[in-house]
Specification:
The structure holds two protein chains of two kinds.
Chain A lengths: L1 H15 L7 E8 L8 E11 L10 E4 L2 E4 L1 E2 L5 E9 L6 E8 L1 H12 L11 E7 L10 H24 L1
Antiparallel strand pairs in A: 1-2, 2-6, 3-4, 3-7, 5-6, 7-8
Chain B lengths: L9 H10 L5 H24 L9 H45 L2 H6 L2 H43 L5 H20 L5
The chains are: A alpha+beta, B mainly alpha.
Family (chain B): Belongs to the TRAP-gamma family.
Subcellular location (chain B): Endoplasmic reticulum membrane
Pfam families (chain B): TRAP-gamma (PF07074)
């Protein structure tokens, strides 16, 4: 009975243009990898969403490992962006499955959390895979120092050769 | 300075050509090509590391490369001249031994001592020319690049890219050219 009710509401919503039907997503993402720039890892996901039923101004929410973040929309077009940070220790190199929910999906997710139901039962509108390579502080010797050392070694060898000729 | 005279004998002109400071056409071309190439290397460095766009700074890069190439080529010329005489002196015995070994006994008796000496001198000059050019190019390039790395990435690290490029290129090439004018006696 409850399922029938949900289906009928969804049909109404799709028909009225509040629900996105068969979304096509074009996404890109950035994750910080340089430990010298900050101790927390930063993630940014940008996406363009096109619905088959041409729904505009979707209100979206992103779910990353059980934590929800609001998704901001650009004033023009269907461009969306979500960003979050996580402590470096809690974000090793991994593949994140970022799930995106519309309003109804978000409400269902909240309800599932309230009644201690498994959140995986709530189907997302779409999901985006974000590959995080992990953060590192790089090599302990700077590259210009290595270049200078190599150049100095070559110059030393050449100077020796030249001195042997001139002497 | 002695007045120029065009009354040199053929031998004297050959001697001047071999032991003078002036370069042959071929040597000049080799030096200028090497100098342009070495002066163009920092463009990649400034483009990739200092984030200087090639098209936006094209005029500056062209002027800087030509300026640097001129002084590097000057350093090549001076270093080569200084090294050639020393190399010729060092290789003298070896070249004489090589030529004597190549010539058979009958051949050695046929040609005069003067011609033998001329052959040795010519061969010695050829070897000294090639070796001095290579050593001069190697030495000048390594000096120029080490000065450039030091100035661009250490001394003037905090400068913005454009002044960094100007100071590094002008400084490195000028100092390289200046140091080549010194002579050891």
């Amino acid at each position: 009975m409850a399922n029938l009710f949900v289906i009928s509401v969804l049909s109404l919503l799709i028909g009225s243009g509040f629900c996105c039907d068969q979304p096509s997503v074009d996404s890109s993402y950035y994750t910080s990898t340089n430990l010298k720039l900050g101790k927390n890892a930063a993630f940014v996901v940008e996406l363009t969403v096109k619905c088959k039923n041409n729904v505009q101004d979707l209100k979206l929410y992103a779910d990353v490992n059980g934590v929800q973040y609001p998704v901001t929309k650009s004033p023009e077009g269907n461009n969306y962006q979500v960003s979050w940070t996580a402590k470096n220790k809690k974000s090793p190199a991994a593949l994140f499955d970022v799930k995106f929910f519309d309003e109804s999906g978000y409400n269902a997710l909240k309800k599932a959390a309230r009644i201690n139901q498994d959140a995986n039962t709530v189907k997302p509108l779409f999901s985006v895979d974000v590959k995080h390579h992990g953060m590192s502080s790089g090599f302990w010797v700077s590259s210009e120092l290595i270049a200078l050392a190599a150049a100095s070694l070559i110059f030393y060898v050449v100077c020796n050769e030249r001195s042997a000729v001139i002497s | 300075m002695a007045p120029k005279s065009s009354n040199f004998s053929k031998e004297e002109e050959l001697l001047l050509q071999d032991f003078g400071r002036d370069l042959s056409r071929k040597s000049s071309v080799i030096f200028y090509v090497h100098a342009l190439f070495v002066s163009a290397i920092p463009l990649w460095l400034f483009n990739r590391i200092h984030q200087m766009e090639m098209l936006d700074n094209a005029i500056l890069f062209v002027i800087g490369t030509i300026f640097s190439a001129y002084f590097v080529a000057l350093a090549y010329k001076n270093n080569k001249f200084e090294l050639k005489h020393k190399i010729a002196q060092k290789r003298s015995d070896g070249v004489a031994a090589e030529l004597n070994a190549k010539m058979s006994e009958s051949e050695s008796k046929k040609i005069s001592k003067k011609e033998k000496d001329e052959r040795i001198l010519w061969r010695k000059n050829e070897i000294a020319e090639a070796e001095s050019m290579q050593l001069a190019v190697f030495y000048t390039n390594s000096l120029f690049l080490i000065l450039l790395i030091l100035s661009s990435f250490f001394f003037f690290k905090s400068y913005s890219p454009m002044p960094n490029y100007i100071i590094s290129m002008v400084g490195a090439s000028s100092i390289t050219g200046l140091l080549s004018t010194s002579s050891q006696k």
